[in-house]
């Protein structure tokens, strides 16, 4: 299995699994004060799964081996989980959806009725009511809202960081067999180099001994030749 295809498919598995978690949490927030944020999270999660599906379909269509088949099983499992939670999210979205103009109209009518009844009850004391300066309250509310958005952004970044750490951990575990094989090859190569160094050292010593022996034989042969020449000369004399 090519390394990049295995890593891409494993990353798709983790992204779809994270999308399942995001869809589940967003579904629980539908119909609450965080309804708009929940719908936006659902939209992003569905877009992410669509992108993962495009990448994974190309990899799975190219070819299958034993290891890729195991990853395909994991991907199909998390994809089925996403389809299940997404169906529940769609059902919940339909139940909690309300047209914005209807809500505004209802709230406007309610405020109108309350205003009329309040005016009727307090018509005699209108001159005694003091105007309330709410600018400070609005500013404080805006600051608190900005802080809340910052905290939510930090929370989202921490979740992304945790997901990246988990993906990195799984990739390292996925490549552990290759690392072990490389370590074994390095150990074998080191042993072979050490054996070669020892053999070269022995060969060098043998070569030196051979040279000494050759020199000794040459000297002895030279002495013998000189002795023979001397004997011949003496015999002729």
TrEMBL record:
Highest taxon of source: Eukaryota
UniProt key word Lipoprotein: no
Presence of the UniProt keyword Chloroplast in the record: no
Transmembrane segments: 213-235
SUPFAM superfamilies named in the record: SNARE fusion complex (SSF58038)
UniProt GO MF annotations: SNAP receptor activity; SNARE binding
Domain T-SNARE coiled-coil homology positions: 141-203
Pfam families per the UniProt record, alphabetical: SNARE (PF05739)
Entry GO CC: endomembrane system; SNARE complex
Keywords: Membrane, Transmembrane, Transmembrane helix
Biological process annotations from GO: intracellular protein transport; vesicle docking; vesicle fusion
PANTHER family: LD27581P, SYNTAXIN
Entry protein name: t-SNARE coiled-coil homology domain-containing protein
Organism field: Trypanosoma cruzi marinkellei
